[in-house]
Amino acid sequence: MRAYQDMVFSTAVRLTGDGAQAEDISQDVFLKAYEHFDQLRSSSTAGGWLKTVATNLTLNHLTRHRKRWRLFSEVFAEDEQEEDVASAAAAFEGALAQMDGEQRRSLIEQALKRLPEHQRVPLVLYHFEDMPYQDIATRLGHSLAKIKTDILRGRLAMAKALAHSGLGPEPGRSCAP
After folding, report:
1. Which residues neighbour 57 within 8 Å (Cβ) at sequence distance 6 or greater?
2. Structure pTM?
3. I want to staple 99 with a disulfide (CB 3.0 to 4.6 A). Which of 3, 94, 103, 130 is the partner?
């Protein structure tokens, strides 16, 4: 671990741009290494294996992270121009990025708690558990259309709650000057 910790951390931090996230990912890499210790102990390619695992875990993390915060990109009025929607979503993401992890988590958790269960459950399954719409519909015993509607309405409700707390623009309002 000591021989490769800097390489694993620097790989993760370069990809994420965030030291705290890189630390978490590095921990996960070394947990995987521990699970495969018998094979890695005598392997001359252990460093390459660790770098590959670090890269893959970081990319997986970034994909999940993007999908989670993508929930704000669909909460604004349909008649707005594409750049207005993008800037509104960016405002939420930018405000969230400036918060420490605990603040961000707390704010999102509070907004999620305010959602009715029929919106909260599919929203969490889709954005935080990476389940496809169809799997959510099957699992919850609802139509695909209902799941998509509930997720969209949940996004709108979350955006309003977050906007009321001073985080980004009100949904439906243009961010253009």
Report:
1. 12, 25, 28, 29, 32
2. 0.50
3. 103
